[in-house]
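Shipment paperwork, digital attachment
Item: protein structure file
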Amino acid sequence: MSGSLVRAYWSASTFLKARGEDRLPYRPLGEILARQARRVQAMAAHAWATVPHYRDAMTELGLRPADLRSADDLAALPLIAGRELAGSPQRFYSSGYEEATTLTLHSSGTNGRAKAVRYDRAALFEALAHGQRQRAVLAHFTGRRTAYREMSVIRAGSVATQMRRFYETHAWVPRSMDVQRCVLPLELPFEEMLRRINEFRPDLLAGYGSHLGALLRWAWEQGRDLHRPRVIWYGADAMPSADRDLIENRLRVPVLSTYQADEALRIGFQCERREGFHLSLDDVAVRVLKPDGSPAGPGEQGEIVISNLSNRATVLLNYRLGDLVTLPTAPCACGRTLPTIERIAGRADDLVLLPDGQSRHSLLFLAPMHAVPGVVQVQLVQETLNALSVRVVCDPSGDWPSIKGSVEQLARRLLGEGMTVSASRVAGILREPGGKTRAVISHCRPARV
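Attachment content:
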């Protein structure tokens, strides 16, 4: 099939799938769960036939695909974590998809360890179509579903950038589904970011939660003129509650968030009420487990475990994301039938502070540091505003003197020569209670009031 025909096929397919996506969250829950169950059954059969990890796991446990009929049945499979995926990704790759026919999303490693997740084309375009659920919510604030002005603050090479490039080269995104876009590089100083925001005047400003919070707080505290978008939309990490309060109550700009991961592109989204995250149960199966492994109940906190039911190139079932979430005590009053999680204990500490009051997001450091040959895992520890240490886990065969020099040079280039940087080799990096590691530990972070 020619390139033009391929693009025409995916364009038409995505357009058809997007129709009705804004109404699906209101469908009867039983209907959505039946659709989820069909996908569980199909994915179980696919995993058994083509994915080494699950064929071996099912064989060892005496399971067959027919034993996995619903989302609840997936609990019979062993739990897996990010370190297993990062260490042996090929164990989770499907033999049914050649690498050339997939998109490999390279994570930045905000939990300290980078991962590579392959996505088949159908899953990627389905994620694009399912974005209409969030678009319907954004339209409540922007006043329209398309053609509004969207500015995103992201790092070069981010997952969002990788996906956008894929869509642009494999399909013609219908005008009815697109917006006016402008991208701000994450490494820009706050001063330049503010200038470009005021120049572009976006209806929607998107980015990483901690970074947008720091940027807008800086503009407020400095008394700078700031174009106020109709809505702020963030993901990837948490926005400090004090920054969110400032944006919503002083700047009078509503703040929305989305819940997604490199391992599952559409997990949850906030509705107009902004009181929780509606779970896309047709895309993912979700469990929330207490420390003893039992299911969490209403109002309780636990670790979220997901099964991606759409991506068949890298199969992840019963996968521990490492996030701690709280379940609600009552359904959302918006009318959507999709259940919610009330809160996500995400990361709000992924910034390195600078002496002038600005900051740099850890994503600027992690991707290039993980690209240094021999680096397995890194953690940034900021002792003072002028001193940063980098903990590095290396491959046993790595050339430590060379690794140390490269890591320190990267940090100085991003932070300025005035910053004292020291890299040290460590055997491992301690995990938080939720199972993740912190990308940044700061001993000089100011209190937010």
